[in-house]
Specification:
With about 950 residues, the chain is of the alpha/beta class.
Length: about 950
């Protein structure tokens, strides 16, 4: 007998791993006919009260008929999902499509009844909320637009799950039952709820890794040396505040301690009354699966896998890595690694050094993430040491080296840092970005609260580093970089710039603008600093030369005066050591500068000192507030804009000193741009509503056009179809008529009206007026026929050229507007001037869709050739408001309809009054099964 499950393919794309409220993970998947025993076992572990709430009556056990009904689905009108941990059900949800009378139905009925059941031991973990997101996405995919749920009034937890979801709801009470009805179309409220839950869950999952109460190091040798023993020694030397365990299956049975740490042959041998929160795995890769199974059965919450031999070693290792992630998630554990350097948390309440770093970093306010262990070591060393670079030592709050980042990634750590009270500045070294779309979203939110500085390695190789799996992107690196900057990310190119900029942000307030005062005792160094400021886009004042005879008091007086000037936003002090100058003079100068800076807490001060000897040490010591100071007050709290310092009054600040003007000024320029972004972000733009937009009409036309072609790769619309679709969004495209011969060209011109343009549309000549494929301002038939003859004589036969006739547009500036759906970055809008020069120079600006009115203004003004639009060399300015509206209409089209995967308007002639779209192409493709509005999920195992 054919069952419903037999008639419909198993929807594997509904499977997903999710992070729950407590930071653990669960797997969500469709229920199948093979789940009968799991369902029965699950139901037996549910309390009588929960069963009563589900069925509105005592229901101690499921009948065979119930089990059959709850495990046989057609995956269209009847769907069941289960949340599993360790392969066993912990919760279920199902929907049944119904008609307006509440009876079972099929499409086109668009309402379904939904019901949940969560095992009591897992209630309060956010399981039902996660299941609701996923069952709602499934329902939308199957054409269901509305859910109905009947809940007993006493079942307040389930009522809260529905009411807190953010969907548009209707609530009624009848016959002792609360009936809830809600639309499944995502709203701003539902997306906000979903992303807030995502942030809390993922932050909690990272916190469990960084602040464990106990750590087991698996793979510890009895003798000093080796990876496992080194990690154990580092944990001990750091003064970890929790419990430690040394584990190695090769330990003799009578061994009870390793260097004072309790020793066990297996994690399961540890006293069951003592939870094990984190395991550091340092065993050969072939033995890791056994260790993971033991940890999962023991209830370990997370793993740091320092073992190598995974994706970085080839195809076999990549499969081993996938299985590692799948196995860990089965038990609800998250992984840092494999091939990781480790994790560090300098909080005095934790003091965790579960890494290969032999020395515990100083505590401070900088969060550090590095995918590369070698780069992580270099960054820790630069932040830790005194001298030899930027002034003084600076500490960190947390450090994560993710290795192959098979599970925990930079996105997860960003979620943690976002509301971590111990982190004020985030520094990241990334060799790849696995999910740029999510990273950009998280970065924008994080950067609005605290600075995020990123350097990306391997950016020009065009391939992902060994061991990393990333989504393919068609966007060049420069475009991705520009999109990150628009999200508030401070993009730098080297780890030196990463540290330079990070230290300035950690030590000084944000500047209110680009105006820079320069003072010092070297005229040459001051002028050099002035030139660098100009090249970095800052607005420096004429340097003030104090002469080589300047004393510490002279420096302080000059700095006091500069900081008191309302027309100064930041000060760069240049200091050249005098012959015979010693530690005493250095200390006096450092104290003078620190005192002056403390008196003006809203303006940053930097020092350029050619000889970073005693002054560097003195500047660090002058404040006595470095992260290593025993009684250092907390002076690194986040700074709101406009730039103010919430440092306690009278507390001196640590002033960074740089060995070169270029380094100091470049760091300052990045901070100035970030501060401006913060000010702009405080007043975000809006997406305007325009007349002449027919969203439903466009949707119907798209459905009709896609139905004509059964090509999953998508279709390029014919010119008339593209014109019709764009018209639904108020975007007019000037008509073109084919001209296969001179007579047809003349007929087309009479239809359109003179003057006209004659253009070729052959791919190798299209939009290339410089090659002679365009003839403009043809006033009459004589001109047209002459141009047609010249065109065909010079460039080829009409069949090759594909000539067309088009009515002339008002004179203006030719521009290009494009939108694409990139598989990694998402929907991107691009703008630039038309022509080979702009293409060769890469003078194109980009914004993520949806584009706000503020974005539209910014994208037009951000290209280098923008002055041409605003009256360059006496020309008339063009109608940029009309151009802004066009950009936003294209953005709306792409944002409203995920099937629109490409739009190109070229050229768009922008005149002093109005604009004309002369050419347009549109590409459609079937929408993805899940999009950005879908439920939160963890990435698939790489």
């Amino acid at each position: 007998m054919e069952t419903p499950s037999d008639r419909h393919a198993y929807p594997a794309h509904w499977e997903a791993d999710v992070v729950l409220r407590d930071g653990g993970t669960a797997r969500i998947r469709p229920i199948t006919t093979d789940d009968a025993e799991r369902l029965t076992s699950f139901y037996e572990q549910v309390s009588d009260e929960s069963k009563y709430y589900r069925f509105f009556a005592p229901y101690p056990r499921l009948s065979d008929k119930d089990v059959h009904r709850f495990t046989h689905h057609d995956y269209v009108d009847r769907v069941g999902l289960a949340a599993t941990v360790g392969g066993e059900f912990i919760a279920t949800v199902r929907y049944d499509r119904i008609d307006p009378n509440g009876r079972p139905a099929s499409a086109p009925a668009d309402e379904a009844e939904v019901a949940f059941l969560v095992q009591d031991a897992h209630q309060g973990r956010g399981v039902a909320s996660a299941l609701l997101e996923h069952i709602a996405a499934v329902a939308r995919e199957r054409g269901i637009r509305r859910f109905a749920a009947e809940v007993l009034p006493a079942n307040t937890k389930m009522i809260k799950v529905f009411t807190d979801a953010g969907y548009t709801q209707k609530r009624s009470f009848e016959d002792g039952v609360v009936r809830l009805e809600f639309d499944l179309e995502p709203t701003e409220a539902s997306l906000a709820v979903q992303r807030a839950r995502e942030q809390r869950a993922e932050a909690r999952s990272v916190q469990r890794l960084l602040a464990p109460g106990s750590v087991a190091v698996i793979g510890v040798g009895r003798a000093p040396g080796g990876v496992g023993r080194s990690v154990l020694d580092n944990l001990k030397d750091a003064g970890f505040t929790g419990r430690l365990y040394a584990v190695n299956k090769a330990f003799p049975e009578d061994l009870t301690e390793v260097d004072g740490v309790p020793a066990h042959r297996c994690v399961r041998d540890i006293d069951p009354a003592e939870p094990v929160d984190l395991a550091v795995v340092a065993v050969p890769a072939p033995h890791v699966p056994d260790v993971v199974a033991e940890c999962g059965e023991r209830g370990v919450q997370g793993l740091v896998v320092v073992s190598a031999g995974y994706a970085e070693s080839g195809a076999e290792g990549r499969e081993r890595q996938r299985e590692l992630v799948r196995q860990a998630r089965t038990y609800g554990m998250r992984i840092v690694g494999p091939n990781a350097f480790g994790v560090v948390n300098t909080s005095p309440d934790v003091r965790l050094n579960a890494s290969l770093a032999p020395e515990m970093p100083r505590p401070g306010r900088i969060g550090l993430f590095a995918q590369s262990g070698a780069i992580g070591i270099a960054l820790l060393a630069r932040l830790h040491r005194r001298g030899g670079g930027v002034t003084g030592a600076t500490g960190i709050s947390t450090f994560v080296s993710a290795g192959n980042r098979a599970d925990v990634s930079g996105n997860d750590v960003l979620q943690y840092w976002y509301d971590d009270p111990d982190t004020d500045v985030a520094l990241m070294y990334l060799e790849s970005i696995g999910n740029p779309r999510k990273f950009t979203r998280l970065a924008r939110r994080t950067a609005a609260a605290k600075p995020l500085v990123v350097v990306q390695g391997a950016r020009h190789s065009g391939i992902a580093p060994t061991g990393h799996a990333v989504r393919a992107t068609r966007l060049p690196y420069a475009t991705v970089s520009a999109l990150l900057r628009q999200a508030g990310v401070i993009r730098v190119d080297t780890i030196t710039e990463l540290v330079d900029t990070g230290l300035l942000l950690a030590r000084q307030p944000l500047p209110a603008g680009p105006r820079v005062a320069i003072l010092g005792n070297s005229e040459s160094l001051g002028l050099l600093t002035y030139d660098v400021c100009l090249s970095e886009g800052l607005r420096p004042k004429t340097p003030r030369d104090l002469t080589t005879a300047a004393s510490a008091a002279d420096f302080r007086a000059a700095l006091d005066e500069a900081l008191a000037d309302d027309k100064t936003d930041a000060v760069v002090v240049t200091a050249m050591p005098a012959v015979g100058e010693g530690p005493t003079e250095d200390a006096e100068l450092a104290a003078a500068l620190s005192a002056a800076a403390a008196a003006a807490p809203t303006k940053p001060v930097l020092v350029v000192h050619v000889e970073l000897g005693g002054l560097a040490e003195a500047l660090s010591a002058a404040t006595s507030t470095g992260p290593n100071a025993p009684d250092a007050p907390d002076t690194q709290t986040p700074r709101p804009l406009p730039a103010t310092a919430d440092t306690p009054e009278g507390t001196p600040r640590l002033i960074p000193a740089y060995p070169a003007a270029e380094r100091a000024v470049h760091a300052l320029s990045e901070v100035v741009k970030y501060a401006q972004w913060r000010r702009d972000a405080a007043e975000p733009g809006k997406v305007p509503e325009y007349d002449g937009i027919d969203e439903s009409g466009a949707a119907d036309l798209i459905t009709e056009l896609l139905a004509k072609e059964d090509d999953p790769r998508g279709i390029e619309l014919a010119p008339d179809d593209a014109r019709a679709l764009l018209a639904r969004y108020g975007i007019g495209v000037r008509q073109t008529l084919p001209a296969p011969d001179a007579d047809r060209a003349a007929e087309a011109a009479r239809t359109l009206g003179y003057p006209v343009a004659l253009k070729t549309t052959a791919p190798h000549l299209r939009h290339r007026a410089d090659l002679g494929g365009v003839r403009l301002d043809l006033a009459d038939e004589t001109d047209l026929r002459r141009a047609y003859e010249e065109l065909t004589e010079q460039l080829g036969k009409p069949a090759e050229l594909r000539p067309v006739v088009q009515a002339m547009a008002p004179r203006g500036v030719d521009t290009v507007v494009r939108a694409v759906i990139d598989p990694a970055a998402g929907a991107v809008l691009s703008f630039g001037l038309a022509g080979a020069a702009s293409e060769l120079l890469g003078d194109t600006a980009h914004r993520l869709i949806p584009v706000t009115d503020q974005d539209a203004r910014g994208i037009i003004r951000s290209i280098k050739t923008a002055p041409i639009l605003f009256g360059w060399r006496g020309a008339a300015p063009v109608d940029t408001p009309a151009l802004e509206e066009l950009l936003q209409r294209v953005s709306r089209l792409v944002d409203d309809h995920p099937e629109v995967v490409g739009v190109a308007l070229e050229p768009v002639v922008v005149a002093p009054h109005g604009l004309t779209v002369l050419g347009a192409s549109v590409r459609l493709a079937p929408p993805p099964a899940r999009d950005d509005l879908g439920p939160r999920t963890l990435p698939v195992a790489y």
